[in-house]
């Protein structure tokens, strides 16, 4: 087997495991805040990621799609696909803004620097990266993943085994944590799990469509999507239990995983802050790439100009704050993701039915 499935899986995971995930803020609001039952939510999200990753990668590979717009058109038709594309592009830009805000929070929490410093630094790195060729961006993002993954896992597992808080204390702390469905008519862990998968699949959809389109072997593309989804599920599960085990001291913290790293040692905290910046960077690149590609062909002069303009506008908007932006942008993007999930599910079901009909027709001859 070639390395392509692993490249797809690593890139898929890297785009989704950005600042919100690696910081622990996403997992805190979507899973940990529901208490121990949030663990069930991580399993639901993991299964959804595996199925959706497989379906998107397979579709784009079959079509040899050059952008996510072609896949959207196949799912919704020309007019509806255009509407979904415009809405999705708008919210992808919002996620890019969240990443710039996350960089600012890291430098403020860990180094005592103004949030604007971290935002400016990341903006410069994003702009420079978007001047690379598309395959260069994909390779760069996928290479970052394994090293950073190991660091996050080490810290969260260590934190879990060194926790001494009782289950009652942790459940009480969870009741004080804002969850993503607070303010709805009812709050439930399954809603958190479904919204997490839906908004993240919307985030990963454009880049996964491009990678799938670059893969000629449909089976390899499908396997890459499945591996990436399973990997995401495992990571969400581990980070969730690490956060839950230490929840009594994480209330009101913008970067929970950085707080856990600080408890291990100052050196680990410094390394973790660099890792978080790299993870935020990988997602920011993916988001601003997808948004800029909506208005100009990648690698063109116009694309580079738009990349600079959009990133600078995002820097200005990022000053509203990291936690606030996550709680605002992500639920709305989750609604777009839910529409994608339904469309992908219908497409999968209709494809299976056609395959069964063709097999039955062949057998009757």
From TrEMBL:
Which portions of this protein are annotated as coiled-coil regions? Answer: none
Record bears the keyword Transmembrane helix: yes
What does the UniProt keyword field contain?
Membrane, Transmembrane, Transmembrane helix
Work out whether the entry's keyword set contains NAD. Answer: no
Q: Where are the transmembrane segments?
A: 34-54, 82-107, 113-132, 139-161, 189-211, 223-247, 267-291, 303-322, 328-349
List the PANTHER family hit by this protein, alphabetically.
CONSERVED MEMBRANE PROTEIN, MEMBRANE PROTEIN
Under which name does UniProt file this protein?
Membrane protein YkvI
